[in-house]
Amino acid sequence: MKASTVAYKPVGMALGALGGALAGIAFTQLWKRLGHEGDAPNATDEDRSWHEILIAAALQGAVFAAVKAAIDRGGAVAVRRLTGTWPD
What we know:
mainly alpha; 2 helices; 74% helix
């Protein structure tokens, strides 16, 4: 196993946890900016429509995927700068 891969494992785990928290905050702010009051609906919230629940879920998934990709890519770039090789 390459040194860059070993070095990236703990960094990737820490960045993943941070990314999840940041994505949650970003989604909440985006949901509010779109004009919704309160929290995004849960799938089992009977007072919300299918449309609203599915839009919220799709938006949340997109935000989480984008934040994860940005964090993972940034971590890999940082490891390459530190070790000179790209992590696997």
